[in-house]
TrEMBL record:
It comes from the Eukaryota. Gene3D superfamilies: 3.40.630.30. GO terms for molecular function: N-acetyltransferase activity. This is N-acetyltransferase domain-containing protein.
Length: 164
């Protein structure tokens, strides 16, 4: 448990993206979607740091210069509630779990979400992922069970055939 005392949660920097990309690949393996993961540090740097309004923002968990976790989020908008924050990823490397690092990363994003007009934070979680219990303990409601929401994706050739 010595890691807990050394962890620093901070905004991500360009130089962190090399280590973050490794964690993203670790997450993809955990979520059984490794073949879909095409992310590179260069893409993360270009997307996250080359514009004044990047499409994502990120906090990292730094233990003595090693990035051991991250939370990636972006701004969303719902026509019925307004602005909100979408938590794309919250991931802590296996050997650093159960030390409160995930909770600290979550709290950093929660602070951002509390400043939006709707004071709302949303995320998707695989039904078999043990993290679902963590999110429910944090106070999330499972709208799949409550409202029957389905999460749908269209991409690649299926999307292209709808473009004139």
């Amino acid at each position: 448990m010595e890691h807990r005392n050394n962890v620093i949660i901070r905004k991500a920097k360009k130089d962190d993206m090399y280590q973050v990309c490794q964690l993203i690949k670790e997450l993809a393996i955990h979520e059984k979607c490794e073949q879909e993961c095409v992310m590179t540090p260069e893409i993360l740097i270009a997307d996250g740091f080359a514009s004044p309004d990047p499409p994502f923002k990120m906090f990292v968990a730094d233990v003595n210069g090693q990035i051991v976790g991250y939370s990636a989020y972006f701004n969303g908008y719902r026509t019925n509630t307004g602005n909100f924050i979408f938590l794309q990823d919250l991931f802590v490397s296996l050997q650093y779990r159960n030390e409160g690092i995930g909770k600290k990363l979550f709290q950093s994003v929660a602070k951002v979400a509390s400043k939006t007009a709707s004071k709302r934070l949303e995320l998707h979680c695989l039904s078999w992922n043990p993290s679902l219990e963590f999110y429910l303990k944090m106070g999330f409601r499972n709208t799949t069970e409550i409202n029957g929401w389905n999460y749908l994706i269209i991409d690649g050739d299926n999307l292209s055939k709808h473009v004139e």
